[in-house]
Amino acid sequence: MDLVTGTTPPAPAAPPGGPHAPPAPDDPASLTVVPARHPARWAAAVAVIVLVAQFAHGLATNPVWEWGVFRDYVLSETIVQAVWVTLQLTAYATVLGFVLGTVLAFMRLSRSPVLQTVAWTYVWIFRSIPMIVQLVFWFNLSALYEELGIGIPFGPVFWSVDSSSLIGTIGAAVIGLTLHQAAYAAETVRGGVISVDHGQQEAAAALGIPRLRQIRRIVLPQAMRAILPTAGNEIIGLLKGTSVVYVMAIGELFYQVQVVYGRNGRVIPLLLVATAWYVVLTSLLSAAQYYVERHFARGTDRTPPPTPLQRARHFVSGLRTEAARSAPPLKHPGDSR
């Protein structure tokens, strides 16, 4: 009598006619695999390629673009200095705006009705007023307050200074951009904080971790994953939004381009210069955003996909390996026989 021992499954039954017999007609393995046809997809791709090629051809051959004028001005001293002013305005407004926005966000999340009301009112007002109106308002601050001072509220003033000498044109632009950016940054930070599970804070409080350390070590590292995409968009929007300060006659990129083409009448190539610089700066900010997001994503993804630079290195390394394999072996001088 045969006994079955262990948990080894029984061997599959051999097909009728032996293992080398042709498959049955109704066997799925006998069906011929035919790739699906997508004629509409191919037609759409061809149409898009034709349109892109036509645009590129017009960009290269249309004399109105005046690429010679573009080459003369794209790296000129005037334009480079204007780009530096644009970067300074963006950096100041970004840092100060997100610092103030973070304070406003935690004011809205506090349990104090006074702080909540003040933060909500700030966000409501500064998101309701267009940026250009705020900039013109701060530019004319000296007409509203001739002097600014420090003293006791509703009492004597110990020290004062002329507001027009304290807040110059650049200062007014930075204040306007910062206050405008802080309103949006507050909502961005608040959205990131409330996206973190509240149970983690309760667990940290049960372990006796101080409130400030909970925010710094538990809440913010997780909230950054939700904050960064929106914050990146805000910073890129702010970079382009600095062009609005042309109303204050500040020599940023768009204002200087206007000045130059107002003198020589070459409007299109000078606008192309400004466009090229904005594209370059936006690309750099996008690359920085990618790597910062990748850094804060390590908490959830221990093995993130390779970066474009790592892929390029891997591709070059693969090419070198293939070239080394296909190269004929070197002959030693003693192997001539």
TrEMBL record:
InterPro entries for this protein: AA_ABC_transptr_permease_3TM, ArtM/GltK/GlnP/TcyL/YhdX-like, MetI-like, MetI-like_sf
Subcellular location: Cell membrane
Membrane topology: Multi-pass membrane protein
GO molecular function, one term: transmembrane transporter activity
Record's keyword terms, sorted: Amino-acid transport, Cell membrane, Membrane, Transmembrane, Transmembrane helix, Transport
CDD domains (UniProt xref): TM_PBP2 (cd06261)
Residue ranges constituting the ABC transmembrane type-1 domain according to the UniProt record: 83-289
GO aspect biological process, one term: amino acid transport
Region annotation Disordered: where it falls in the sequence: 1-30
Chain ranges passing through the membrane: 40-59, 79-106, 118-137, 157-179, 235-255, 267-292
Biased composition (Pro residues): 9-26
Cellular component terms (Gene Ontology): ATP-binding cassette (ABC) transporter complex
Residues in the signal sequence: none
Family in the record: Belongs to the binding-protein-dependent transport system permease family.
Name of the protein in its database record: Amino acid ABC transporter permease
Native species: Streptomyces nitrosporeus
